[in-house]
Amino acid sequence: MLVEAAWSYRFPARVSREQLLRQEGLPKPIRDTAWKAQMRLCGRYRKLTRAGKPATTVTTAIARELAGFVWAIAAQVPRPTN
Question: Which of 37, 52, 62, 75 is the most buried (most CB within 10 A)?
């Protein structure tokens, strides 16, 4: 799933209207982390591609880094208490 998601970082970072509506209820630190991830991963994709790396290698590298951002966001979500 991470590799499939990493392919979307070929395109410039932006927040669509649909994404904006989905993010309305999220805390600001989570939105900030998501935006930071999008900026970094889009830039990294372009940089690695310009360096001549194969697209599959670049996408795998982006997926690995994406896993770190997913973990960072998950760590910010409060755990439910039972």
Answer: 62
DSSP conformational letter for 82? -
Domain residue ranges in the chain:
2-76
DSSP state of 2: H
How crowded is residue 29: how many other Cβ atoms within 10 Å of its Cβ?
11
Mean pLDDT across the stretch 45-71?
97
Q: CA torsion sign, 49 to 11 to 36 to 65? A: negative
78 phi, psi to nearest 5 deg:
-65, 140
Give me the helix-helix angle, 28-50 and 55-76, nearest 10°: 170
On whether the CB atoms of residues 63 and 2 are closer than 8 A, the answer is yes
Let me know: does 68 contact 2? Beta carbons within 8 Å: no
